[in-house]
């Protein structure tokens, strides 16, 4: 999916997964159940990292790799 949208830290997990579907695999691989979760509409990456206690640096790196293709 070609897009001119750029990743921003204030984007919700839902926005990220909708804009870049390849990030769904990253989310699932990190044990997050954001897909279909109503909280994903509000949680940012920082929120998800904090709530689920995952390595934020590793998660962000994987997200960016998926976003950049």
UniProtKB/TrEMBL annotation:
Which superkingdom does the taxonomy of this entry point to?
A: Bacteria
Pfam families, alphabetically?
Answer: DUF1858 (PF08984)
UniProt cross-references to SUPFAM superfamilies, sorted A to Z: SP0561-like (SSF140683)
Q: Which PANTHER family match?
A: BSL7085 PROTEIN, DUF1858 DOMAIN-CONTAINING PROTEIN
The species is Aquamicrobium segne
Q: Where is the DUF1858 domain?
A: 10-59
Q: Which positions, given as ranges, span the membrane?
A: none
Name the record gives this protein: DUF1858 domain-containing protein
């Amino acid at each position: 999916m070609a897009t001119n949208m750029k990743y921003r830290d204030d984007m919700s997990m839902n926005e990220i997964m909708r804009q870049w579907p390849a990030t769904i695999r990253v989310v699932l691989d990190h044990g997050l159940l954001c897909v279909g979760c109503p909280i994903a509409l509000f949680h940012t990456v920082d929120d998800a990292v904090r709530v689920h206690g995952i390595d934020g640096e590793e998660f962000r790196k994987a997200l960016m790799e998926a976003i950049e293709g």
